[in-house]
Amino acid sequence: MHRAFIFKPTSRQASIPITLLCALLWTIPSWAAAFASLEIDGGKSELQTNIRAHLDLSDILCDTTELRLRSRLRGSDDKISDAMRALGYYHGTWELRRERVTYKPTILKNNPLSSTVKKLSNKAQPNNTEAGECWLLKLNLTPGPQTLITKLDVNVVGAGANDPLFTQYLAKLPIAINDPIQHDLYESTKKSIHQRARNAGYIDGKFVEHRLEVDIDKHSAAVILVFDSGTPYTFGKINFGPSLLNTSLLERYVPFESGDAFESTKIVQLQNNLISSNYFSSVSIDQDNPGPETHTVGLSVTTAEKRKYETTAGIGASTDTGPRVSYGLRNRRVNADGDTYQIASQYSPVLSNLSFQYTLPGDKPLTDKLQWATGVERKKTDTSDSTSYRAEVALISLQNHNWIQTLSLKFLREDYDIADVSNTSTLLMPGIAWSRSEANDRRYPSRGWRINTAVRGALEGVASDLSLAQAELDTKWIFPLWGGRLISRGGLGITTLDDFSELPASLRFFAGGDNSVRGYGYETLGPEDATGEVVGGKHRLTGSVEYDYRVWGDFALAGFYDAGNAFDTSDFTFYESAGFGLRWLSPIGPVRVDFAFPLKDGGFHFHLSMGPDL
């Protein structure tokens, strides 16, 4: 086997001028230090890349002296050999030469401290840009035959021999017969088996055989890995450190029980559950020393509580409600059982409210809760003026397939004025609602959906002035299309009752506004009385199709079409609008600016709104 390392003497040295002062002035271009380059002739790109990584010439400047270069390249043969052997080339030969070549500096406008070096021929330069010289290393490579895997014996023995955790992995190993031997894949296979075992509770697992046998003359390799899983461990006792909350509450956040098979991912899930509870600022979980006789692993949980009270304040605006201010107070730890309460308030020219909500955590406190709430709301639109008082109890729980179910009983008393007719209604309404949403990115989803549906009713004489039944369904879907997003939205509402005039304003259906038929004012569409005043309807049907495309950074342009209305009977008046808008993914959430043009009445409406897409 022949290896040669040859230097060609040169007559002069050159250096590249460096203007450090230009680093202070971004508008003035400058030259930055240039580095030696490497050319490799021969071998596959994978091998060339590995050789470059092993040699790493990024610190050899063009003005490096020949003596220093010789010193810097000492040991290059061993590095090249290691790079080749790692990919199964054991019979390679090579020559590494160096020479001085002419280069032309290139100005990089965006970074005055960077430059690129372009190798040119030794001919005169075609322009007046000052040229210099730099080191070029040439590697002439003959890799020879690549060693292939001719024997592969990877097995798991012991209690985990038939565990799908191992059998599924062994069925799809990253190495196979007749593959070129790669030392890093051999090592990563060992590491993966061992890591899987540790994560699944096979804490005593170890390799009883681990060999990589290479026959250089026959260009063949044998991989022998035999892993003894040992006996799997289970979760032992969980000890919670000092806390202001009862241990019985903390235990309801544990996603496993003592005696369950040990899995490290469940420890991470436990930590995430406790953090998501919003009681704690930090959570640390330590594993106790495994018990070799009992084959159990105990856990010690240490928590640090957040402050008891939290206040929020904000300002915002939309064309539906106008400018608004809000304030909230939350007590996240009323008692050791983890009860919380929240006071929320909002004021705007159209919608103002004040509410109090008390929450008790359920058996699965992250998803199940019992809420008691009361509040008052004042709403004044172009079509109605109402003040409502409510008291409500709701049981919220997570159902199959991630559907959130809400069972509620709501008492409502509402004073309202519609089309110069004033009335008061009292209702006791049981109800049930389901909701679910999925998104690949909550900030700017390119694919996702949301479904909200609810059914409520009241019975005259049971704390109610009238009997009614009402159902609502609202959906939204987002799909990727042509590099942008297609957003579709639909809504349906149905009401059955005897006397529509007794239905309070908050339960009547209207259309128009930021999230309805743009091109019309907020809740200005619906059935009208004899004088032309909008009084709302029993039913609602709306839909929308929108396309937006990001044009620069966090800004996107959108085009849309909306249609729908509120109605009482089959005599349905269809209102349509179309327009365009600008979207800004601001730090506080998406901001939407729309210009909508009614297709029936002419003119246009400006709309400003904020809030997540799903």
UniProtKB/TrEMBL annotation:
Stretch forming the signal peptide: none
Lyase listed as a keyword: no
Subunit structure: Interacts with TamB to form the translocation and assembly module (TAM).
Record-annotated membrane-spanning stretches: none
Domain of life: Bacteria
Domain Bacterial surface antigen (D15) intervals: 321-611
Name recorded for this polypeptide: Translocation and assembly module subunit TamA
Family membership: Belongs to the TamA family.
Localization: Cell outer membrane
Pfam families in UniProt: Omp85 (PF01103), POTRA_TamA_1 (PF17243)
Keywords: Cell outer membrane, Membrane, Signal, Transmembrane, Transmembrane beta strand
Gene3D superfamilies according to UniProt: membrane protein fhac, membrane protein fhac: a member of the omp85/tpsb transporter family
Domain spans labelled TamA POTRA: 37-101
Phylogenetic placement of the source organism: Bacteria, Pseudomonadati, Pseudomonadota, Gammaproteobacteria, Cellvibrionales
